[in-house]
Amino acid sequence: MVVQRHHAVSELVGDLSELVGDLALDSSRRGPTAYAFPMVPHLVFGLTRSYFTRKVTGYFDYTDRPWRLEPGFGQQAAATEAGWNGGIPVVTKPDGEFMWDSTSIIEHLDPATAPDKSVLPTDATLRFLAYVLDDFSDEWFYRPAVGSRWSYPANTVTAGWQIAEELSSSLPFPAAFARDRVVETMTASLPKLGVTADNIDAWMSAVVVPWMQALDAHLTDGGYLLGDRPSIADFAVFGANAAHFMGDPYCRELTDEHGPAAVAHTSRLLMPQQQSFGPWLEIDDVPDTLIAVIAEAGRHYLPWVAEATVAGAAVVELAPGVTADIASTPFLDGARGVMLARYVAARTPQLDALLERAGVLQYFADYVDQATTVPDVSAGSQPIDNRPYAVN
Ligand SMILES: N[C@@H](CCC(=O)N[C@@H](CS)C(=O)NCC(=O)O)C(=O)O
Fold first, then answer.
1. What atom of ligand 1 comes closest to residue 239's alpha carbon?
2. Options 1.20.1530.20, 1.20.1050.10, 1.10.3720.10, 3.30.70.20; which CATH number does 120-370 get?
3. pTM
4. Which CATH fold would you assign to the domain 42-115?
């Protein structure tokens, strides 16, 4: 059949599905097929609109790992039994073992990944920069991502409905009821993230927009954060963008305006099978645009986390006269100790010079007494704590 010019999308879709039907019929005539599908998927107990779910599934797609989304609460009791204390996604390996915490999951799986798809650079300096940006995305941009979703009506309506619709597959009550509960619960969590009605605009204009601009300048040639292949940090940014900054309509307007190259970066990782990848960047040749991306962490996040993980909480001035008072949590205290342990292990004059160039050296070098140890995730990914912010 021939596909004609169309005046309506529905006509086009109708014609195309007929065409696909014809092709399927043709291929079924080619002979007997062995219906054997031996790959056991990773089961992902998460949500399409979730920051950390998308970080993990983006990584699965890039590394060609089969996975299947299982939204809802079906596995909650079994995961809790295994030691999970909340925070999605929870994922099972093909052998059924539970894993949680996006960074630990990726670290745990990386050694079993084809070397050309490893997301942890072999160069220790570059690897540390990957962890710095992974941590920055996970523990900082999660705040305005969730904050903006439940502060701007265009985001709330869209994401509230999508989440409720997905969750309703395992809830025995109407989706509209589920939506109201989701909106209520998530809106109530915002102050703990440091987001209020008075400061959300500053979070967007003084935190998110400059971040998108820095990413835009760095990614404009079509690469990834640390070269021509993605690192763990790219999947952190991917998760943030896919679930929130590109997925929530108000955020998408800002991201399209200030970070079109960040949109293109995330879109490339949505379909990694269509990309070709190259080498990591040369550590002697770190461009100013990457330094500017790292420097964003020195504007609010690193000064805040350095103080809050010592004092219990710290006030961030997001914009002149606009503040956020944000408490640390046991999870964050732990993550900070691990970051500092990574710094102690990776520290060289070369690394210090790069961090100094980005204006962030002091937030590592002056706090080494807080360094703990880098967890051994070779046996599995089941950290004791997984909650980046306090929940009621
Ligand atoms: N450290 C975890 C954080 C997981 C997390 O906080 N997930 C969010 C959704 S994207 C969540 O479950 N939020 C709701 C809650 O904590 O109750 C990771 O990296 O996977």
1. 10
2. 1.20.1050.10
3. 0.91
4. Glutaredoxin (3.40.30)
